[in-house]
């Protein structure tokens, strides 16, 4: 099976749920990311005040926000005049099963800051 025909309302409902879940995970990860930055800056400030040698460079991967990907597809589905929408196999993977090409990178980064991210 290379394509499938889906009810537009069911597709929109699934996309919206996937989008909301993505956004919630992202927002929790951003909170954790900011907390990690503050912790690191405070630690380095303590080192400076104590006269210790400090590493001037550090990097924390920033959480990725792909909410726009969901919003684009949601808008397309909502504006469609068709009650039934035909999707290809790769589109079903992304839109219905939430298996985007960026998903593993997103999960890896957000898990650093929010252990419950999936």
Describe the structure.
The structure is a single chain. This protein has 118 residues and is mainly alpha-helical. Helix content is 62%, strand content 8%. The protein has 4 helices and 2 strands. Strands 1-2 form a two-stranded antiparallel ribbon. It is elongated and about 70 Å long. The model has no long low-confidence stretch (mean pLDDT 93).
**Low-pLDDT segments, ≥5 res:** none
For the sheet with most strands, the description reads: 2 strands, antiparallel
SS class: mainly alpha
Give the N-to-C terminal Cα separation: 28 Å
As laid out across the biggest beta sheet, the strand order is: 1-2
Mean pLDDT: 93
The Cα radius of gyration reads 20 Å
Q: Briefly, what is this?
A:
The chain is mainly α and 118 residues long. The chain is 62% helix and 8% strand. It has one domain (3-113).
Please describe the topology of this protein.
Blueprint: E1 3-7, H1 8-49, H2 67-79, E2 84-88, H3 89-95, H4 103-113
Antiparallel strand pairs: 1-2
Helix pairs in contact: 1-2, 1-4
What brief labels describe this structure?
single chain; 118 residues; mainly alpha; two-stranded antiparallel sheet; 62% helix
């Amino acid at each position: 099976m290379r394509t499938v025909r889906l009810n537009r309302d069911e597709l929109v409902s699934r996309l919206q749920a996937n989008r909301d879940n993505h956004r919630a995970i992202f927002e929790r990860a951003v909170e954790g990311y900011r907390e990690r930055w503050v912790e690191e800056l405070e630690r380095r400030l303590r080192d400076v005040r104590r006269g210790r040698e400090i590493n001037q460079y550090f990097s924390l991967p920033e959480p990725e926000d792909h909410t726009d990907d969901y919003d684009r597809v949601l808008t397309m589905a909502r504006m469609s005049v068709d009650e039934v929408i035909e999707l290809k196999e790769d589109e079903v993977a992304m839109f219905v099963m939430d298996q985007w090409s960026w998903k593993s990178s997103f999960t890896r980064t957000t898990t650093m800051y929010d252990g419950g991210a999936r």
